[in-house]
Amino acid sequence: MKPSPAALEALLNGTHADPFALLGIHEGPGGAFARAVLPGAETAEAHSLGGDVIGELKRIDDRGLFEGHVSGTRQPVKYHCTAAGHEWWVTDAYSFGPVLGPMDDFLIAEGTHLRLFDKLGAHVIDHEGARGVHFAVWAPNAELVSVVGDFNDWDGRRHPMRRRADIGVWEVFIPDIAAGRAYKYRVVGPGGAVQPLKADPFAFRSELRPATASVIEAPDVHEWGDAGHRAHWAATDPRRVPISIYEVHPGSWQKPGTDAGAEEGAGREFYSWDELADRLIPYVVEMGFTHIEFLPVSEHPFDPSWGYQTTGLFAPSARFGEPEGFARFVDGAHRAGIGVLIDWVPAHFPVDAHGLSQFDGTYLYEHADPRLGFHPDWQTAIYNFGRREVLSFLVNNALFWAERYHVDGLRVDAVASMLYRDYSRKDGEWIPNAEGGRENWEAVGFLQAMNRAVYASHAGFLTVAEESTSWPGVTLPTDASGPPRGGLGFGFKWNMGFMHDTLAYMARDPVHRRYHHDEITFGLMYAFSENFVLPLSHDEVVHGKGSLLGKMSGVDAWQKFANLRAYYGLMWGYPGKKLLFMGQEFAQGREWSEARALDWYQLDIAEHAGVQRWVKDLNHAYRTIPALHARDCEGEGFEWLVVDDAAASVFAWARKAPGAPTVVVVSNMTPALHGHYRLPFPQDGKWREALNSDAAIYGGSGQGNLGGVTAEGGAALVVLPPLSTMMFVFEG
User: Fold this and answer.
1) Residue after which a domain boundary falls, among 71, 92, 113
2) In the predicted model, is pLDDT for residue 264 greater than 80?
3) Could you confirm whether 413 is annotated as catalytic?
4) Catalytic, out of 413, 442, 467, 540
5) What would the pLDDT profile of 482-532 be if each residue is shown by its tens digit?
6) How many domains does the chain have?
7) Could you give the CA distance from residue 416 to residue 433 in angstroms, rounded to a whole number?
8) Domain check: are 398 and 478 in the same one?
9) pTM, whole model, 2 decimals?
10) Active-site choice (92, 466, 519, 617)
């Protein structure tokens, strides 16, 4: 049937909702018939992909509409076009069949597709005899979606997409384009409202800000060499091995022009992933950390957001070069024995016009009601976790980072803000759940689904919750019977209580600490209720909070450094995995800023170099002495020895592990030297003084116990240096 003039006019204007019904090859009573839009062409000859001439088309509209009979059956075709002495070839995108199949439709509709990143987005593929790019995007309420890019002059009339009505996905295969091309989607929403050009939610690469287009990424060709690393963690119980995490903002750890590589970095803002690998990985190995945890590496438009306002969940930021560079970094870290964790942000997303906000002209990824869909703290949108397609999008993103980039785990940001409907909201600003409560059960279901998916498919993977409340069962299995509706299924949880209480204590003048003794002891009341990570993170050294060194009390610099060393010793001796933000390992004096590199010059100052050496030795001891890590998450590995000496501000405990020598940790949090302190020991015999924060090599006063003490009758008289933490290892 010949299309109506109105239909052809809509086709030429780029407003026809079903271009595949008119364009390409169609079989009819008179044989196969071809129709194509070929702007600028005067003649068009149809060829099979093999090169055989199958017909000649006539131009029926000066805007480039051609029609004509062709021989053979329906098949992909290409056109030889001429105009004004020029000639070129165009392979007809509308002569190809769909790429997605019925099983994709079924799983996408169910919200159970766990390979969406193989299906949606832009993929360079071979399809029906041609090489090109398959584009697919979810926009169920759109009237029309077109791919626009630097390959079609950003013209929405050139490549409108095929709508898969049952699932709301639009797709098109465009032959003869390749990786490296910039693109977006032109979305016409309900009622014909044209949206701002949208970046691809599944884009695997993006332009460097301030540009915001998605970029077609080449197929993954990286040859991984980390099988040994992954096999090790797959066979390991992470609760019972040392985990010491170095938290890093990749844009400001070092910057070109500010370190030894100054001459090669002139004029550049950031090191590439390969340059970071050459500098960061050896440093982390030398310092004894087991993992690097990056602040979010996904694409984000605004540098001061540190990546927490992400607009490209599937794309490593273009600030650091090509995505393949991130794969090389992770592989290099793994080969060096270092795990890589990334900060993951499913709690909110920015409302930038090119992002997910009202993606198809409706509230698609977010709630329409701001009491559910808008976050007052960050002025951002909140994902509609109860919508199966949104849940699937986020779960697939977690799986993507594990599979494509071999990351070892995710630190999930702002979990508390997802769990409570009234988070940061006053009365009347939130909507109770169906039972009238404040719990966000949809978010709970999402977190459980994410954890089930990653732990089921990637052995050795870790998830860590930044969760600041007493929500029960954060690190319990999702089928646990204790918490309401099961545990959340995380591997670990940040111990925010430890961080808040102990930093408050260390900020107090030592003469007042006796009145706040419980700020150290109280944490052991719940230290084994979850699998904890002890975090001294970036959040503690920004927004006017100063540095960790600046938080320490002290009448002079010596006391401040001594307090910090004692605090680190207490933390490394305390049950729980460890996390330290970059710069704090050498006691950077200034508050951190993403706009500048760390103050590495301070390592020329003895006190700062001493702290760095202390952290290095703490990491080495933590990794090599089983009692310090093997029961980090189990109460059987901890025993108080001195819990109530508030007057002297002394704390002592034993760390234990089956079949391993016991360690005694003792902290003196006053500037007074205790020359003959009667310290209980769990066993009589010789105890080696393995670590002493007051040693001269760390910048201390050099007080100590001449290498060790001997316990008799359950105790020994020990020297407790001022503002210090010591560790004694039993030697028999």
Assistant:
1) 92
2) no
3) yes
4) 413
5) 888 999 999 999 999 999 999 999 999 999 999 999 999 999 999 999 999
6) 4
7) 16
8) yes
9) 0.95
10) 466
